[in-house]
Fold:
Amino acid sequence: MKIKRILFAVTMMISLSLLTLSCRETKSTEEKVEDTIEEVGDSMEDGAEEVEDAVEDAADEVEDAVEDGVEEVEDATDDSI
Structure:
């Protein structure tokens, strides 16, 4: 009788283990496509932010160069007077 209980308990544990392993969640093709589209959208946003930062940096450099040029012209004008 005791052996039957032990065998039954072991059988139940093995069955439960197999059931939990076989019931893993799998993604459908639609879910995979949605995930890929979302990743692409995120990458595009990141790229757009990088471009925006680069444009701002370039604009700052141009502004600094113009200011330096104005100062040089003013200094040259003051020196010639």
Summary: The mean pLDDT is 85.
